[in-house]
Amino acid sequence: MKVVGITCSIDEKKIYLNRDYIQSIIRVGLTPLIISPDMTEKIIDSIDKISGLLISGGEDINPEFYGEKNTACKSLVPDERVMAEMKLLEIFIQKEKPVLGICYGMQLMNVFLGGTLWQNIETDINHTEGDHEIQVIDDFLLKKGIYRVNSSHHQAVKTPGKGLEIFCMAKDKVIEGVYLKGHPFFIGVQWHPERDCSEASWKIWQSFSKKIK
């Protein structure tokens, strides 16, 4: 049984995770394990039993994590979640296990590696809803070309973190996908591949599952 840990949103009393993430993991033949911040140390202690990590979407990361003051963040992710996921990223990078970050997850990967974020995107493209085109400029995962993806965010990677390479972006130059050079599979995408079955999204899930051991 190949287990993939999925992080989740939290408040003081509850955890939250859209079922789309769970269903996507099951669809590619893997077993999902929901990870709340309370479980972080146990997961680290049992890292050999976890085959991969999925960092799900969420709200905004406190800009203090990347050395800025809050000028445009709307609803902050609890610091507890951010710090727990950073601990997980550290061990998954160390063990060279596959990691996929979606939306907030991609932004967290970037901040973890020392990058910064646009606190609010102001371009001609509406990134907060609907869909738009992206251009793949590095064909390590998807063939170079134009793809259409969904969109549900108002923040994005500004300065890529150490070792991160850009593989796709929107027409307004907003970064839509990154990967960590030299790692077997450390990929972040700004759209939500769990929500649709587009060519780009399905390729993400296929590639992720093939790297799971």
Describe the protein's architecture and organization.
The chain is of the alpha/beta class and 213 residues long. The chain has one domain: 3-Layer(aba) Sandwich (Rossmann fold), CATH 3.40.50.880. It is built from 5 helices and 13 strands. Strands 4-1-5-6-13-12-11-8-9 form a 9-stranded mixed sheet, sandwiched between helices. Strand 8 and strand 9 form a beta hairpin. The longest helix has 16 residues. The chain is globular, with a radius of gyration of 16 Å. Pfam families: Peptidase_C26. Keywords: Glutamine amidotransferase. GO terms for molecular function: gamma-glutamyl-gamma-aminobutyrate hydrolase activity.
Break the fold down into its secondary structure elements and pairings.
Layout: E1 3-7, E2 9-10, E3 15-16, H1 19-27, E4 31-35, H2 40-45, E5 52-55, H3 79-94, E6 99-102, H4 104-112, E7 117-118, E8 131-136, E9 145-150, E10 156-157, E11 164-170, E12 175-180, E13 186-189, H5 199-211
Parallel strand pairs: 1-4, 1-5, 5-6, 6-13
Antiparallel strand pairs: 2-3, 7-10, 8-9, 8-11, 11-12, 12-13
In a nutshell, what does this entry contain?
This is Type 1 glutamine amidotransferase. The protein has helices spanning 19-27, 40-45, 79-94, 104-112, 199-211; strands at 3-7, 9-10, 15-16, 31-35, 52-55, 99-102, 117-118, 131-136, 145-150, 156-157, 164-170, 175-180, 186-189. It is of the alpha/beta class.
